[in-house]
Here is the input.
Amino acid sequence: EPITAPDISTCVASTKGFQAKNAVRTNACCPPALSKSVKPFVFPNDQAIRIRPAAHRATPEYIAKYKAAIQAMRDLPDDHPHSFIQQAKIHCAYCNGGYSQIASGFPEKELQIHNSWLFFPFHRWYLYFYERILGKLINDPTFALPYWNWDNPSGMNLPAFFEDEGKKNPAFDAYRNVNHLAPAIVDINYGGVDTGTPCIQQIGTNLSLMYKQMVRNAGDPLSFFGGTYKAGDDAKANNDPSVGSVEAGCHTAVHRWVGDPRMPNSEDMGNFYSAGYDPVFYVHHANVDRMWKVWKDLGIRGHTEPKDPDWLNASYVFYDENQELVRVYNKDCVRLDKLKYDYQFAPLPWLQNRA
Ligand code: C2O
Here is the structure.
């Protein structure tokens, strides 16, 4: 049977995966109970396709729009389902023990959307609603999230607009590793220690790792998406060998690289419960999501989504851009054309890095 996210009324305070005693973010991560009924998802009928731009190539006009949207989100009251804090809490609830598998008949089992084949589809849906909410807040139905193009040498720094103008910038977050601001080159193999690798060499290492995680070690659905996770299964640990190549690799390394090592739980990006409080999270995950599209578009045999009904029918519940609760299924997030967004083209220099 597939994993089925329960009704939000069953949500409890999150306690797993961080030290609540020293936490700088709350463990009360449950969504506000505005509505009781959960509606089925309906595909959008937008006229335009939202095109997500590469962050390092975004125009000043676009950056101003992005910041205005984030500011509008921050300005909402905290208990509004579209508020900055509620959006951040979604991650904490789904990743730090807020939900159980009660809807699939296993109330004693944790529901965890990491470390398995739920990773890509859950985060795709999460960003889908986040993007539409931001667009609605600034009245722009074409608004699209930027993606942090860390797989490309020209995008391997933290994008500048997260830092410029300092603390009055809505995209700023105080809990980041200050040694990793531009011009530091991201280490997509980061394990918590700066290696001091010269930047030219770091770029080469990153490209080789991308090739490995996108091609060599990602030749079939489960290697790329991650191992199966079905109703009744225990959540897997992040060092489980079945974790998908990108999730275990560049995805987690970038989280840890951005998080603040001075903080007790590597807040914000370095821990699930707090990651959503850093606007970088969504821009990082836009590129993770883009990796799914790129992997598929490579057209290599084996590069297809899982066909198991327990993957296709796994589902989650989100507040949509109209503050309605909707249930969404993995099977409905496979086609970007139906979700009405896409990614601006960027070269894939790692395709040549078989070394
Ligand atoms: Cu839900 Cu990047 O983690």
